[in-house]
Write a structure and sequence with these properties.
Blueprint (H helix, E strand, L loop, with lengths): L2 H4 L3 E14 L2 E14 L3 E5 L6 H8 L7 E6 L8 E2 L5 H11 E4 L11 H11 L4 H14 L15 H13 L5 E5 L7 H18 L2 E5 L3 H4 L4 E6 L2 E4 L19
Parallel strand pairs: 3-8, 3-9, 6-7, 7-8
Antiparallel strand pairs: 1-2, 1-4, 4-5, 9-10
Bound molecules: adenosine-5'-triphosphate.
């Protein structure tokens, strides 16, 4: 953890989170009592073997899925009593997600018919932000990710790394408090992966943005300030302790 993040206020606290899926008569327990605290401006990397529950944790934290039990306590802006977002009614949840969370996935999911600028404006337009303001916010983030000279390009006219930069700009255009990234470089070559990680690192510092990044890339995880290791639906180490990613058992996806 960066020294500055150690004393920062808590942004989100996951308490005793369980998540199971029902398959016919069989119950698959994917998260089995996860506890995790992320502070404001903190960058956390999550590692662990395939099937450990990393994406499920991210989906629940990002309110894309609901845990079976447990609490996700988000501190309000400026402090005060945290809100358990697992109890928010659906309309409030959608609003919370749109304003508080940014998502970046392994595949960028940009809309092919729209330009880089239009893609980055989309979340703000969905939130009914006036077009001019949406455009300004999107342009500012596209500039921050080094894409200001590609605004009119469609995704098919961009390289893989550039597409992921646009996806990052789109995720950050609403100025979320938490960025959730699920293998954001899993689809990129080694050099481009390193560049995208470097970009995330810089955005974390410059925008004091909290980030949770799932990765199989141990080399890059080793450079990250805080590493949390998951196995079998639990956090083994890293919530309050340092993890040495070089001890991570070899994953079939380790080269991604
Ligand atoms: N919607 C779902 N329905 C049923 N089972 C699911 C669902 N989502 C995930 N699972 C199961 O939960 C387990 C954990 O999946 P998850 O995607 O969270 O793992 P992961 O650690 O992110 O793995 P990977 O590194 O391969 O992406 C897997 O066994 C998976 O099959």
């Amino acid at each position: 953890m960066l020294p500055s993040a150690q004393d920062a206020p808590v942004l989100v606290q996951v308490r005793e989170m369980y998540k199971s899926f029902q398959h016919g008569s069989r119950k698959l327990e994917v998260l089995r009592g996860v506890n995790l605290t992320v502070r404001s401006g903190e960058m956390v990397t999550i590692i662990g073997a395939s099937g450990a529950g990393k994406s499920t944790l991210l989906h629940c934290l990002g309110t894309l899925d609901l845990p079976t039990s447990g609490e996700i306590l988000f501190s309000p802006v400026g402090g005060g009593t945290p809100t358990d977002i697992t109890r928010l009614p659906p309309p409030d949840l959608a609003e919370f997600r749109n304003r508080t969370i940014g998502f970046v996935f392994q595949f960028h999911h940009l809309l092919p018919e729209f330009s880089a600028l239009e893609n980055a404006m989309m979340p703000a337009l969905i939130a009914r932000t006036p077009t001019r303001q949406a455009r300004e916010q999107a342009e500012e983030m596209l500039d921050a990710v080094g894409m200001s000279d590609r605004l009119a390009h469609r995704p098919g006219e961009l390289s893989g790394g550039e597409q992921q930069r646009v996806a990052i700009a789109r995720a950050l255009a609403m100025r979320p408090r938490l960025l959730l990234a699920d293998e954001p470089t899993g689809n990129l070559d080694t050099r481009t992966s390193a560049e995208v990680h470097e970009l995330l690192f810089r955005l974390n510092l410059e925008h004091d943005l909290s980030m949770l990044i799932v990765t199989h890339n141990m080399e890059l995880a080793q450079q990250m300030p805080r590493v949390v290791r998951m196995a079998d639906g639990r956090i083994l180490e890293g919530d309050g302790q340092d993890v040495d990613p070089s001890n991570e058992p070899e994953s079939p996806l380790a080269s991604e």
